[in-house]
Amino acid sequence: MVYPILLAAHNALRWLVLGSLLIALGTSYSGWFLARPYRSLDQLLRIIATSIAHTQLLVGFYLYTQSPIVSYYWKFSPDTSQSSEFRFFSLIHMGLMVTAVVVMTIGSSKAKRQPTAQQTFRTTAIYFTITLLLILIAIPWPFSPLATRPWIRSF
Ligand code: HEM
Predict the structure, then answer these.
(1) Quick one: which of 64, 84, 98, 152 has the fewest CB in 10 Å?
(2) What phi and psi, each to the nearest 5 degrees, are found at residue 146?
(3) Ligand 1 neighbourhood includes 103 CB (under 6 angstroms)
């Protein structure tokens, strides 16, 4: 009962993860290139983006323990000739997403310890760009060659 609800939430949260990340990236690059001061709004956007990603990570961990696809993979180790989805969700999706959120968390905490506004913007921009690329690769887009899932899922 909880699984389908959290799967739909995980699907929808992906859009919040991407949206908040893009907004935080927009303010970081604009701050960096325009050499403006670091405002409390920049910090707030960075913290909101990181918190949404952490929430998605927690939902992902729950799904990982309950997913029939993941448990089938660990029980029977199916090869990719059967379906690449088993390996995708059990290893690739999980591994890349955890790495992405770790990179984001390190970037966010490094950013706040930088001595100048420019360095804070630059650190956020670089770490969050790497995070975005990893997330974009690991999402099961409807056009992904690895595993496909719908753009949205109803509760
Ligand atoms: C920023 C991080 C993440 C994003 C954007 C993301 C995105 C997604 C999306 C869009 C789906 C498809 C949902 C659907 O079927 O409608 C999905 C499925 C899934 N994700 Fe994530 N995910 C993230 C992190 C994680 C993490 C860290 C884990 C595991 C530790 C995880 C485990 C899973 C599992 C198990 C499924 C479902 C497999 C099934 O169909 O049973 N996700 N994820």
Answers:
(1) 152
(2) -90, -50
(3) no
Q: Are 135 and 21 in contact (CB under 8 A)?
A: yes
Please, what is the Cα angle at 94 between 21 and 62, to 5 degrees?
Answer: 90
Does the CB atom of residue 93 touch ligand 1 within 6 A?
yes
CA distance 91 to 64: 10
Note the pTM of the prediction, 2 decimals: 0.95
Q: Does 119 fall in a domain?
A: yes
Residue type, position 72, single letter: Y
Answer yes or no: is pLDDT of 138 > 80: yes
Task: Compute the Cα dihedral for 106, 136, 149, 153 and give only its sign.
Answer: positive
**Between residues 80 and 38, the one the model is more confident about:** 38
Looking at residue 61, which CATH number applies to its domain? Answer: 1.20.120
**Do 93 and 70 meet the contact criterion of CB atoms below 8 Å apart?**
no
Specify the residue for token string 């290139």: 33
Domain interval for residue 75 = 2-138
Task: With both helix axes pointing from N to C terminus, report the angle between 117-138 and 40-66 in degrees, rounded to the nearest 10.
Answer: 30
